[in-house]
UniProtKB/TrEMBL annotation, chains A, B:
Protein name: 3-isopropylmalate dehydrogenase
Gene3D superfamilies according to UniProt: Isopropylmalate Dehydrogenase
Pfam families found in the cross-reference section: Iso_dh
Domain Isopropylmalate dehydrogenase-like: 4-321
PANTHER family: DECARBOXYLATING DEHYDROGENASES-ISOCITRATE, ISOPROPYLMALATE, TARTRATE (PTHR11835), ISOCITRATE DEHYDROGENASE [NAD] SUBUNIT ALPHA, MITOCHONDRIAL (PTHR11835:SF34)
Gene Ontology biological process terms from the UniProt entry: isocitrate metabolic process; tricarboxylic acid cycle
Organism: Halobellus clavatus
Amino acid sequence: MSEEIVVIEGDGIGQEVVPAAVSVLDAVADFQFVEAEAGDAVQAETGEALPQATYDTVADADATLFGAAGETAADVILPLREAVGSFVNIRPARAYPGVDAVRPETDLVFLRENTEGVYSGHEDRLSEDLSTLTRVVTTSASEQLAEFACEYVADRGESGFHVAHKANVMRETDGRFRDAVVDVAEREGVEAEEVLMDAFATRVCLNPGQFDVVVCPNLAGDVLSDLAAGLVGGLGLLPSANVGPDNALFEPVHGTAPDIAGEGAANPSAAILSAAMLLEHLGYDDEAADVRTAVESVLESGPRTPDLGGNAGTEDVTTAVLDRLD
Amino acid sequence: MSEEIVVIEGDGIGQEVVPAAVSVLDAVADFQFVEAEAGDAVQAETGEALPQATYDTVADADATLFGAAGETAADVILPLREAVGSFVNIRPARAYPGVDAVRPETDLVFLRENTEGVYSGHEDRLSEDLSTLTRVVTTSASEQLAEFACEYVADRGESGFHVAHKANVMRETDGRFRDAVVDVAEREGVEAEEVLMDAFATRVCLNPGQFDVVVCPNLAGDVLSDLAAGLVGGLGLLPSANVGPDNALFEPVHGTAPDIAGEGAANPSAAILSAAMLLEHLGYDDEAADVRTAVESVLESGPRTPDLGGNAGTEDVTTAVLDRLD
Ligand SMILES: CC(C)[C@H](C(=O)O)[C@@H](O)C(=O)O
Ligand SMILES: CC(C)[C@H](C(=O)O)[C@@H](O)C(=O)O
């Protein structure tokens, strides 16, 4: 029985790169694709950026491939992460041979806590002058992330990971996060090396090769993975996975790129690499590896979109990837 | 009447770079120096990392030059910033000719909110599983920072600044921060361009030249300025100023560097550049410019400490700076 994959193009270049990724998925596996809507366009039409029907479809599917949303990004992606019960956002950031990078030796994977921290949604306007946000950290969510991280590094034959935090200032909350992660790692026989998130920002620029898998709270993961995107040459190449207990959502880290949307010039690599993460997640390891190899080969010597200094279009790159999969 | 400058060496290389900076100050101005203690060593001796006497002396002085503290850093520096009523942390991050940098075109100044955000100190352990932190943002503190920023860019003949935030997620708190900063800028006729803090992290790596003065909430300023430190070649060259209404504290951004402490090999440049910020703050603009020029000349063609690939000591570099001041 073929798996059901929800496909949400969203806005802007989401409508160009997601079809590209779907054509790649279609070439290597026998999925049943279900289209769903979310984003600025739906909001303009219906008043809702994320229709309940989309939320429900995503919650029930085997996996979802999402493109990007514009102004409504937070209204779409945060509830969608919740719809799949995602407790971890996996964000690999690596430089590819043939692609200009500030730091070509970068090869990192961020495992970002995906449910709490400053993303908890509790904010209050307490007076004319003062507002507060309640940052939430639980041991249970931190442990769940840490257990995932331990399996993740074990699967890759690595001995440990870094845990980035700001527990010297957020002593109780990031202290709880750090302790939970370190305790789980110890129990699982995995090395967890601590690094303050600000020190990480300096050190990763100076020498990214000293890091590998980095476990972090929600906002730290957001900012530090975007920093790593800068080191590898931009957001155009970064895929991501939002993984839940029995469901997952995959998305390129880039946004809608309104400056180039509609021109057929968007780089589909991040979306196709997100599709590769989807394949791997569903157990299609060989197909995932094939797709990655094809994308890498195109990045090294195939047609290039303008963001990488070429003048090929989304379709040219997609066709080149498909050719290499034959 | 000569100004009273409190000098706190603190721990580790603070004890090496602060005397270097004091000798430079002594060479160009007629200050009265008052020594005070804080840090790990004092904590070990007295049980208090920041004695009340030090706090009071700093609160009363014209300015303070601080080195670094070890494990007790947060217990020392956060109250000291409060002692001078510091509402802004000024963090210039620029690459110097002759010094290896990941991004040699980097020339940024972060104006970091210095009193609130996640640094408010309100954390609670609500249950066995859950802790919270109350992130605080006020319009008054945001406006005070913005007014400073407007004067700062006007003094430099620039037209505007960027304001980095995460108001797409922290809508009420960072929304308040953003609105206050943008409103003040508008009123003062200064351009304030918004950038999400995660997008800033990517963009500053790809092209730091597009940014100049960056206004940010407390933790954003902490992480993004450390990121910029990575782009210019490390923390060894970054000075900073914590400015209050009628008092200020100056410190290198680096820490105690326990790996090299006691060897006389620490790079005194960040401390000396912090002293230059102190001079400028007290109105000694010519002397500040002279010190900066001397440091730049040494960085370009003088003796180098091991962090910059040389084998000179702290004293060699300091002597070279002093020679160029004659
Ligand atoms: C759009 C925004 C809510 C989101 C986040 O902060 O998680 C984005 O920056 C991301 O990293 O996916
Ligand atoms: C030591 C720590 C509390 C401090 C901070 O977070 O402000 C440091 O990182 C800094 O940037 O001066």
